[in-house]
Amino acid sequence: MISITGLSKKYNDQYVVKNIDVLFPVSKVTSIIGPNGAGKSTLLSMMSSLTKSDAGQVLIEGKPLDEWDSTQLAKRLSVLRQSNNINMRFTVRDLVAFGRFPYSQGRLTNEDNKIIDQALLQLDMTHLQARYIDQLSGGQRQMAFIAMVVAQDTDYIFLDEPLNNLDIKHSVDIMKTLKRLADDQNKAIVIVIHDINFAACYSDNIVAMKKGELIKSGTVEEVIQETVLSSIYEIPFTVQEINGKRISFYYHQ
Predict the structure, then answer these.
(1) Higher-confidence position of 35 and 250
(2) Residue by residue, what is the 3-state secondary structure of the chain?
(3) What pTM was computed for the model?
(4) What pLDDT was estimated at residue 17?
(5) What is the rounded CA–CA span in Å between residue 136 and residue 144?
(6) Average predicted confidence (pLDDT) for the chain
(7) How far is CA 21 from CA 5, 35, 61, 87, 209, in A?
(8) Which one of 144, 152, 204, 237 is most buried, counting C-beta atoms within 10 A?
């Protein structure tokens, strides 16, 4: 489990994340939702040691984040950032193989290659593994980066807007894959996501933020409520249950 207490970050005396307390359990998909400027990506970045917090603490399995050795942390926690730029010309398989670096240090074993094959298969990228990254569509490139994170095979997987550039089919495929990783392999999946209905349909828990503050966290049923969503996004919401899923409808009056 990842436990966060009092986590805060300021830029120029302006809080972008303020005094956040929240838990991220294993075997669960947790989505972080909220409008632009809510502090979602900053929170994820501090949780993964990419950004230093100004106050508070992140505990991974009871151990403070800053006490983790970076090599050991890379075997337990993987991160897909919002912007991923590669200047060198790699094939899809080369990129996915980078996920094994914390284990292989660049010398891939048979076991590493099996895990790479499995990640490519899970993301339906096997037929594209010999293609160069710059030959892919935006959606295919995003799938390749997610396959790289899956190949890292960590207990904790953080993804900052993983559905960027993806059409509906690929978005569904990604969310199903992440849900299987949580359910079948006991991984803690934490996603920053804008699509509230994808969050509601594929998450176990939701963290709702606004202006750097935690507004509500809990199960989908506890957070996906008309009053909560209307308060966060400042527009009217209607929530209906369809086939056991809470679906949001929003509009301007």
Answers:
(1) 35
(2) CEEEEEEEEEECCEEEEEEEEEEECCCCEEEEECCCCCCHHHHHHHHCCCCCCCEEEEEECCEEHHHCCHHHHHCCEEEECCCCCCCCCCEHHHHHHHHHHHHHCCCCCHHHHHHHHHHHHHCCCHHHCCCEHHHCCHHHHHHHHHHHHHHHCCCEEEEECCCCCCCHHHHHHHHHHHHHHHHHHCCEEEEECCCHHHHHHHCCEEEEEECCEEEEEEEHHHHCCHHHHHHHHCCCEEEEEECCEEEEEECCC
(3) 0.92
(4) 97
(5) 9
(6) 93
(7) 4, 19, 16, 38, 12
(8) 144
Rounded to the nearest 10 degrees, the angle between the axes of helix 168-185 and helix 138-152 is 10
- Give the tokens for residue 149: 């994170």
Q: Which two tokens stand for residue 197?
A: 């209905």
Distance in angstroms (rounded) separating the CA atoms of residues 205 and 190: 10
CA distance 248 to 85: 34
